[in-house]
Design a protein that fits this description.
Elements (H helix, E strand, L loop, with lengths): L31 E2 L6 E4 L2 E4 L1 E3 L2 E8 L22 E3 L18 H7 L12 E6 L7 E7 L18 H7 L2 E5 L4 H4 L16 H16 L5 E11 L1 H11 L9 E5 L9 H13 L5 H6 L2 H15 L35 E6 L17 H11 L5 H11 L5 H9 L3 H13 L4 E6 L18 H4 L7 H4 L3 H20 L19 E5 L4 E4 L3 H6 L5 H4 L9
Parallel strand pairs: 3-6, 8-9, 8-10, 10-11, 11-12, 12-13, 13-14
Antiparallel strand pairs: 1-4, 2-3, 4-5, 5-7, 7-9, 14-15
């Protein structure tokens, strides 16, 4: 098959009017409509058939790229083959290959998150679309890029990722994407020759291929290819920053939202090439031998080699690479003339990314003095007293354990991204902090990592294990989702649902704090963040708390 990068394709001229199929005849109370002539829509590769549920047209598992195994492994994404007839798009596509053991070992976390995983396959370049109607109307488009670092996850990993409610209430088109991860998305085998020059970045090239598919096809689903917002959380927050910085994304992205994740640069290529060269050495430099391995075998081999060589600061040893081509070297936002300069950015973190007391209620009652000791000994902070004093002054209503949670949640990286994007100029930056504590686990669940997703997407009554459901979280969600919809439409999140939200600048540090009653505060944790010393969060979380006095 001829290999073609999607972003080099000239979009085929396709009729805007889609073949949405006959309008179903509704019986009393019927919510789901599915059938041969219902929700049938044209794409450039063939027709797809979805379904209608609660007035939202849903299309799942649509291929935007060819299978990535065999000779396509380590190569940039290729076009999917066209198909004859109508292709069912009724269920999610395959997940990207990844570690799949022990995902559900923690009973409490499994209850809270109840991860959704399906088949793992190198035929994983697929996406999902939720739309009010495939009617040719030009609606704003949101493209969701999942979390899991660059190693794991999928487009529907949590129920909170579901796009129907936001599509319906906001009259927008919601798209979510699967792409290559870990050793399959980021094995830098460029030492094998120019054919593999992009091998260390094919995982993010997949994301651009998905955006090219959106550009070429979303009008047939009722979306506007000229108004596309990309949004991601955790690893997805880093992904949207990467895509924003990629020169080939120009014209495909118009607004960016990053949640609890960020990036201002990519991995050093010297480190990624060292791992890739060591992998090549195991097969005598024969890339075809690596391509011929079953995915499980290559996954094990590459991770073993990375552990032996050292990860070079990259999470797991496999992450996007600053090759000077796909991704720029140095600071992503250093070039004031780059296309990214003109794209608005919204960033949000949560106040308790890792709520330490959720499963250890004794921490809930520690004294301020014990909290200082825990920060000093558990997190290696010599300025623990000053950090805690600064946080206590900024947030006098919070308990000592909540102040520690804010240290663990350190927003320093996200604020550095906001500062860098602000310095680039050309488009505004908006900064937020999610601080709502759902009434779960005795109130100890707090605003944890991933908790805000269902609020942005109006899924608080769907993801009840994150929110509790009901009127109060729904009210918080109304504020956040309306701000997101305003940002998607105009690049400015201000709307009637929230107080006035000034654009960010480093001097004032204006931050929207989302809660039952949201408010804007200037640089609420600036002093504390300036005192924090770098620490390895995940290793520190394993350390025990100090003994109670």
């Amino acid at each position: 098959m001829k290999r073609v990068l999607f972003f080099l394709l000239v979009p085929a001229m396709m009729a805007v009017a889609s073949c949405g199929g006959n309008q179903p005849v509704q019986k009393d109370g019927q919510r789901l409509f599915v059938g041969d002539d219902i929700a049938v829509t044209e794409t450039q590769y063939g027709k797809v058939q979805g379904y209608i549920l609660d007035d939202v047209y849903t299309y799942l598992g649509i291929p935007y790229g060819a299978p990535t195994g065999g000779a396509n492994r380590f190569m940039p994404p290729q076009e999917p083959e066209k198909w004859e007839g109508i292709r069912p798009a009724l269920f999610y596509g395959n997940d990207a290959p990844q570690a799949h053991e022990d995902k559900w070992k923690n009973n409490s976390s499994t209850f809270t998150d109840h991860w959704n995983y399906y088949d793992y396959s190198e035929d994983c370049l697929n996406l999902n679309v939720w739309t009010p109607a495939p009617d040719g109307k030009k609606r704003p488009v949101l493209v969701w890029m999942h979390g899991g670092g660059f190693a794991a996850g999928n487009s529907i990993e949590q129920d909170g990722y579901h796009g129907a409610n936001l599509a319906r209430s906001g009259d927008i088109v919601f798209v979510s994407v699967n792409h290559r991860l870990n050793v399959f998305g980021f094995s830098d085998l460029s030492a094998a020759g120019p054919e593999f020059a992009k091998s260390g970045n094919v995982g993010v090239l997949d994301l651009v291929a998905a955006l090219q598919w959106v550009h070429n096809n979303i009008a047939n689903f009722g979306g506007d290819p000229g108004n596309v917002t990309i949004m991601g959380q955790s690893g997805g927050g880093a992904k949207v920053c990467d895509v924003l910085a990629m020169p080939i994304s120009k014209g495909l992205v118009h607004k960016v939202v990053g949640l609890s994740g960020n990036a201002t640069s990519a991995a050093d290529q010297e480190a990624s090439r060292a791992i890739g060269s060591a992998i090549l050495k195991t097969v005598g430099g024969n890339v075809k031998a690596l391509q011929a391995m079953p995915w499980e075998e290559y996954f094990a081999l590459a991770n073993k080699v990375a552990a032996e060589v050292g990860t070079g600061g990259m999470m797991g040893g496999f992450a996007p690479v600053a090759d000077g081509d796909v991704l720029p070297k140095g600071n992503f936002f250093a070039d004031k003339n780059a296309a990214s300069a003109g794209i608005p950015l919204m960033l949000c973190t949560t106040s308790s990314e890792f709520s330490l007391s959720k499963e250890n209620k004794e921490l809930e009652e520690i004294s301020f003095e014990d909290a200082v000791e825990m920060v000093k000994n558990g997190f290696g902070q010599s300025k623990a007293q000053e950090v805690m004093d600064a946080l206590k002054a900024a947030f006098p209503e919070k308990k000592p354990i909540e102040l520690i949670n804010m240290i663990v949640a350190s927003r320093a990286g996200v604020i550095a991204t906001a500062d860098a994007k602000y310095a680039q100029g050309g488009a505004p930056v908006y900064l937020a902090l999610f601080d709502y504590n759902a009434p779960l686990f005795g109130g100890r669940i707090r605003a944890f990592h991933c908790a805000d997703i269902s609020y942005w997407f109006k899924n608080t009554d769907l993801m009840v294990t994150h929110t509790g459901g009901g009127a109060e979280p729904r009210g918080v969600s109304d504020q956040m989702s309306e701000a997101l919809l305003a940002f998607m439409r105009t690049g400015n999140p201000n709307c009637k649902a929230i107080p006035e939200w000034p654009a960010y600048n480093p001097e004032d540090g204006a931050t929207m704090i989302f809660n039952v009653k949201s408010e804007v505060r200037n640089a609420p944790d600036r002093e504390a963040l300036s005192l924090l010393e770098p620490f390895n969060l995940f290793s520190m979380l394993a350390r025990p708390a100090p003994a109670k006095k």
